[in-house]
Amino acid sequence: MALKATISLIAESFRLAVRSLRSNKLRTFLTLLGIIVGVTAVIAVVTIINGLDSTVANAFSAQGSTVFSVSKRPLVITSREDFIKFNKRKDITEKDAEAINRLCDSCWRVGTAINGRGLVKFGENRAENVAVRGLSLSMFEIENVSIQAGRIWTEQEGKSGRNICVIGTDIIDNLFEGSTPENVLGKKIRVDGVPFEIMGISEPFGKVLGFSRDNFVYLPFEAGQKLFGSRDSIVVHVQVETSDEFETAKDEVRTIMRNRRKKTFSDTDDGFSIDSQDAFIGIYQNATSGIYFATFGVAIISLVVGGIVVMNIMLVSVTERTKEIGLRKAVGARQLDILLQFLIEAISVTMVGGAIGVFTGYGLAYVLSVVMGFPLMISPQSAFLGVTVSFIVGIISGLYPAWRASKLSPIDAMRND
Hints:
By secondary structure, the protein is of the alpha+beta class. It folds into two domains: 9-59 and 282-415, no CATH class; 65-276, no CATH class. The protein is 59% helix and 17% strand. The chain contains 15 helices and twelve strands. A six-stranded mixed barrel has the order 2-3-10-5-7-6. The chain has a two-stranded antiparallel ribbon with strand order 8-9. Strand 6 and strand 7 form a beta hairpin. Helix 11 packs antiparallel against helix 13 (335-372) and helix 13 (335-372) runs antiparallel to helix 14 (380-406). The radius of gyration is 33 Å and the shape is elongated. The relative contact order is 0.18.
């Protein structure tokens, strides 16, 4: 019976709370705004970053923790002083790549690349700032490049210095105006004025953070050296068979390269850089963690402001409904009944605000995912978090006004004008 009475009391308090909220729609809506903004911010950011995490993970999963590179300069340079220092290092050469391939027992595949950017033209159509890379054949396996039309060059074709290439799908879209991959095979494009015959078209890689990964031209390594200059520093890419060998291979390569540069234990700079995709992932995680903290800061401020607004509105409501409170007490309502009525009213406001915030947060995340081109990763945990936080804010902000209402004397309340 006690449980039934409690349920009945809560149900009656909820009914009275809903009636009060419906009778003051504008005030209720304005009260909701702070809660809606705070929950929307949390839901949207958590959903967006989950989608970005998935995109970044998929983008680098082909190589993951099995590939690293050896280069003159690190992938990420944070200051002008570092750039000047790294630029004074000796160039990475083909002989370095040959030594790594010959001496590194843990290395499974070794490939070479020479990287640049250039102007690519076909007829009157042009594409600027295209990634142009001269690659050894092993790079197609290391970077998991699949061909959807045509083929890659043979070792003999590459060594002969033929001007042939494999292109990304953006080149077709930008230069061939909607032609199919099969229709562009055999056609010649000009890369910085030098003609290259299209031999193959790669499967699309897609976008990462809104940036296309298919705007490229791959050349044989020897053709790339002719285009960019054979004396330029190259990048050596190393792949291990399993991730367990990753650190061992890095140590072996570091030892080989330090010996080639006659480095001693007292030399703090190796004279080269060894990088993996972790460098980019680390930067990404640092950036997103900053966004997390900033957004949660905004959300907390919004929820605190929303809670204060709810408390103020509830205090106003208590003042306006003093006679109602006195009348209810006069006909037998207990302090607990009054306390529950106003507490449930405050919780109802914040819970409704939280629910609206969940939907608007997902809606905002959906719009941004379409614009930026990453998957929408809806997390039930984030929705639960938003509603739970709203519930807690409702309790905290409604407790004092409810307590004040429950303590009113029925006689004083009935006398109030």
